[in-house]
Amino acid sequence: MKKQCKKRLGKRVFTRLAYKERVIIENRYCVDWKSITEIAKELNRPKSTVSREIGGRPRKGIGRYTADKGQSHADNNAKRQGRQGRITHTPLREYMLEKLKEGWSPEQVSIRLPIDYKKDERMRISHEAIYQYIYAQVKTSGKVPKGKEDLRPYLARRYGRRRKKGFRATQKLYRPQLPSIEDRPKAVEKRKEVGHWEDDTMVSRKSTVRLKTINERVSGIILIGKMKDGSISESNRVVLDRLSKIPTPARKTLTRDRGTENFGYQEIEKELNMTCWFAHPYSSQERGSNENGNGLIRRPYPKKTDFDFVSDDDIRALERRLNNRPRKRLGGLTPYEVFFRATGVALEC
Predict the structure, then answer these.
(1) What is the pTM of this model?
(2) pLDDT tens-place string over residues 16-27
(3) 38, 43, 60, 114: which could form a disulfide with 34 (CB 3.0–4.6 Å)?
(4) Is 95 helix (H, G, I), strand (E, B) or coil?
(5) Burial class (CB in 10 A: 0-12, 13-18, 19+), 193
(6) CB 272 within 8 A of CB 244
């Protein structure tokens, strides 16, 4: 007898009909002429289960109910159950796989297709369909069948299963002594003007070497530099080195967190002619663009990475890759493209 497959719904547990039960149904229904109620009582099943199994088939004659046909029908249904991959157009599937492996998100793949293939309507897919395709390769147990490719490692969060989005609780606001984000011009929040930047420090658990990340709020440009330690001088050195290459009109403000390495902001204001502002304590959402960029950097360099062994060439390659990724909020354009359109300056591509 085949193993029964269980389905849970709340606290109730349902089991599929086994072949042995179908034989009983056939004998009682077609030979003994028992009623559906009597058969259900004998099997300790709901009447609806027996009625649905019989499906209005006659007790005798052509098309009558048989256990073999019932089991065959159930087996065919079981094969069709679960998520099914829908990407049948080979060029579309190859494009999707290539971009996912380059670090693009499903949304970025979706919004970039109409730009790269303007006239080919077959090269269109929603980000939801891509997610469904990815998770269709995985069984409910989490195992990947032979012949299938596990694409979950190429997703940003690498979840084994799809999860609902959650929201962090808003932190209590605090007015600091440093220049507060509360006094920052409101125009910065609107993301209409290029030149407003955010920065942060990514710590290595293995050594004192850190990464300083700097991003522009409108274009999404990300700049990355190595710090030898968490000192003010090292933080300022990297910020001055990276932002000094940006045209002066595109350097207006810099929003930071309250890490001690950022307390030398006066030097940055003087050398770069920028105004520095500080977010509230424990309020990373006030530098959301920067936090998102850090998440992208953590994909190749997780928290246990020793940044001392990450070369400058590797950092520049990652920087170029991130700035060449299409962004949903940019209408499928890349940060490099948006920055060039706004300033006429082509940064490294």
Answers:
(1) 0.57
(2) 899 999 999 999
(3) 38
(4) helix
(5) middle
(6) yes
